[in-house]
Every structure is written in structure tokens, then in C-alpha cells.
Amino acid sequence: MTTAGPASATRVAASTSPRIDRGFDTDLAIAFMKAAAHPQRLSILRHLASGEKSVGMLELLLQKRQAAVSQQLARLRQEGLVVNRRDGKAIHYSLATPQVEHFVRCMQEAFRRQP
């Protein structure tokens, strides 16, 4: 009589469990979530999900000083979540990639307050 040892149990468990996507960039995802895990940065991302905004417009929307908004925009830009363009003296920001937009929209839907 043959008995199944721990190694065969491990093979069975491994073959029935869902596979991890090897193409998933864990480090990028963690950096992304850390950058978005600040209330003001998350608010900026949410505002930018509806389209490009100037720094001045973000100041008004967030009701924060320009220096504070610019500091958070710099962190988001450093992490690759937003991009900017200059138009004369104004600097406009938008979400960097469709993936960032998708993430923000998913967050908004997942955490929408229910009436």
C-alpha cells in the first residue's frame, strides 16, 4: 500500500489554487498605492479623472495653498501617476496613463457612499 506524503499534497494544492499572474509588477503597484494613499493626492487624482486641470484650478477645488498642491503634484509626478504641460505661466496636469484613470474610477466606484 502506498501512502501519499506531504509532497504530493503540496502538488495537489498548488495545481488547484489560482495562478499568480507573473506579468504583474508588484513593485509598481505598491508604489502606485503608496502615492495614492494620501488624502490630498487621492483628491487630486479624482479631480484629474474628469480631465486636465491647472494648478490654480486644483487650488480652488481643494481649497489649499499653491505650495501644498504643488508639493503633492510633485510626488504624483515623481511616481508617474500624473504628467504636466506648460501653457505660458500656467502648468496643467492630467493623469499619466489609462491605467491610472482606470484605477481612480474603480476606487470611486468601489468606495462610493450608499444613500
Automatic annotation (TrEMBL):
Key words, A-Z: DNA-binding, Transcription, Transcription regulation
Residues in HTH arsR-type domain copies: 20-115
PROSITE patterns membership: HTH_ARSR_2
UniProt-listed InterPro entries: ArsR-like_HTH, HTH_ArsR_DNA-bd_dom, Metal_resp_trans_reg, WH-like_DNA-bd_sf, WH_DNA-bd_sf
Record has Ligase as a keyword: no
GO terms assigned for molecular function: DNA binding; DNA-binding transcription factor activity
PANTHER family per record: ARSENICAL RESISTANCE OPERON REPRESSOR ARSR-RELATED
Identification of the protein by name: Helix-turn-helix transcriptional regulator
Organism (species): Halovulum dunhuangense
